[in-house]
Each structure stands twice: as C-alpha cells, then as structure tokens.
Amino acid sequence: MSDQQPPNTKLLPDSFNDGVTAISYLPNPSVSLLAASSWDGTLKVYDTKDTSLQLSQAMESGPLLCLATPGDKAVVTGGLDGSIRRMELSSPSSELIGRHEPNLGDPSLLACSCLAALPSMNVIASAGWNKKVSIWDLRTQGAIANVAIQEKAYAMDADDGQSRLVVATAGQGTTFIDVRKTDHETTAIIALARQSHLKHQIRSVKFFPDGNGIAIASIEGRVSIEHLEDLGLPPTSAKYTFKCHRANDCVYPVNCIAFHPRFGTFATGGCDGTVVIWDSQNKRKVTALPAFPTSISSLAFHPSGNELAIASSYTYEEGEREHPRDEIYIRPVLDSECMPKLKS
C-alpha cells in the first residue's frame, strides 16, 4: 500500500455566475486545458497546471447544456436554443455548426442536451429533446445524418474505436447507434435499443475504455454495469447494479461518471457532494474523496490520468434554495487511488 499523502485540491479562479453543466479536458495529454460550460451561457477554458483562465466566451446560445472536445484546438457546445457552436481557441468568436429542428414544430423541444465526439471521423453527434440524434461534420454547416430515437435524450457517449454512440433516454432506455462514413455519405443506424437495468431516470452513461460495456448512473443512487453481448462484444466482467451515494435513509442522484484513461476504474459524482472511484471488475470501492460543498454536476479525468476535474455545482435536486457557489476543483490523483484493488 502506498504511504504517499493525498494531494491537495486546487480551486480554479473566475467561477461562473450559474451552474456548471459540463467539463472536459482537451485530448492532448501534454497540456492541461479544461473546457467548462454553464447555465449562464458562457464557455470557459482553463489551464489547470497553473490554475489560470485562458478563455471566456458568451456562446450566444442561451444556457449551455453540454460540450465536447473533439481536438486540441476547439470546443463544441450545445445550447438550450438547440444550437451547436464551435469555438476555436485562437478565434475571437464562435461559429454556428447547426441547429436542432423542433419535434412536431414545438420550439420547446429544441434543446441540445448532449454532445459526443468521434474524432477519427471528424464529426460531432448531438441529441436532445426532439427525439433525434444528428451527426455534424466539423468542416461544414448542417447535419450530414439524422436518426430518430424513441424518447428524449438525457446523456450520450461515444466509442471512437467502434464509431459507435450510446444514448440514454427517458424511460430508462439505451440506444446504440453505429456511424459509418464513406467518400460519398455518412449514415447513422440504430444497432440496438434496449431497457437498462435501472428503474429510475438516467443521468449519465459512459462506455468502458475498451468499448465492451457501459456504466449507467441514475437518480436513484445506483450505477449499472452492462455489457454488449447483443452487439457481438465479449463481456469482461459480470453484469450487475450497485447502490452508491447514500447516507442512512437518504438516497442521492448520481449525476456523472468518468473513466480513468489508463486503469479502467471510474469515478462517480453525486448530489451528496462526494466523489468515489470504483473498480467494476472486482466490484470494489477504491477511493472516496472528502466531500465538496455541494452537488457534483460533472467529472473529467485528464488524458494522462494524473488529475481529476470536479464541478461542485448545485443541480437543483431540492428546488430553488440558497447554495454554495458553483466552483471547479482540480484534484491531482495518485495511481494508488485509481488502480484496481484485487480481492484478498
């Protein structure tokens, strides 16, 4: 067992004026650039190495619900108004990639609730309340492919190696979409649609790093580990659900999941203000960090796996009330805090 002391947590400056909706590192492991979006409509990019603000941009989309970091030089955001915008880090303004079309003409269903990047194909996927997944080429404007889904989309992730998306929807459904690109066209085809093993609303879904399974978090203080045998992928561990983010009789929503890029363990963040790292293979808790001031709305591991970004931001699970300031913390992590723990 390591006798190293736990690293100190750093607080990023220049906080948002409203809730933090998403955080994501740019994928270059040699730099430490973290993008963050907010209900106040602002995109910010921080250098977490020296805890400095590098960029702050109003994205002209109303509240920002999500973001994606497809490369080292740009960030893509999704807005409540249905717009998908790209912000080049070297540019003074953002560029409109496209906009969701309302379902049945209802403008209240425009919102872009989730984004995911497929960098090898140079495309972004968006989903939202219009019950549709759209594929966007970052070099052009307008969707290059669309596919209808059964319900509103609440969360999404991408497996770039398989060119596959997973979308978590209302009704506890998960839809897997294969994206294929030729010289002439791009297609998005539903490969599998099924119910998750959770009984309450899904907040987050993430592919395992090898793409052979998914982890799903719900408002009921549970996480489900599910595999993709139906897609011809071999299971790497047992399928199961487990309880987490609970205190006595109080059950807290699990808002977010982030996988460690090297070890395959994953962190969860809940409305109890705690972050816990889990080993799904051995069904064990690895590390529990000290509690943060309020709900954890988003998590992201640095591409190197050496630090974890944590958005401590009230998610209104108890309605309108006084709450601590919305902040982003950077926690350097030791390998011993993230490595799988073998059963004794």
Give structural notes:
The chain is mainly beta and 344 residues long. Helices cover 1% and strands 50% of the residues. It has one helix at residues 335-338, and strands at 10-11, 20-25, 33-38, 42-47, 52-58, 64-68, 74-79, 83-88, 95-99, 112-118, 123-128, 132-137, 143-148, 153-159, 164-169, 173-181, 186-195, 202-207, 213-218, 222-227, 240-243, 246-247, 250-251, 254-259, 266-270, 275-279, 284-288, 296-301, 307-312, 327-332. The chain starts with 9 loop residues before the first strand and ends in a 6-residue tail after the last helix. 49% of the residues are buried.
Throw out a few tags for this protein.
344 residues; mainly beta; four-stranded antiparallel beta sheet; 1 helix; 1% helix
- Structural class by SSE content: mainly beta
> What is the percent of helical residues?
under 10%
User: What's the overall average pLDDT, rounded?
Assistant: 93
- List segments where confidence is low: pLDDT < 50 over at least 5 consecutive residues: none
What is the C-alpha radius of gyration, as a whole number of Å? Answer: 19 Å
Give the end-to-end Cα distance, rounded to a whole number of Å: 13 Å
- Strand content bin: over 45%
Quaternary organization:
single chain
**Mass-distribution shape:** globular
Topology, number of strands:
30
Largest sheet report: 4 strands, antiparallel
Strand sequence of the main sheet, in spatial order? 1-30-29-28
Specify the number of helices: 1
In short:
By secondary structure, the chain is mainly beta. It is built from 1 helix and 30 strands.
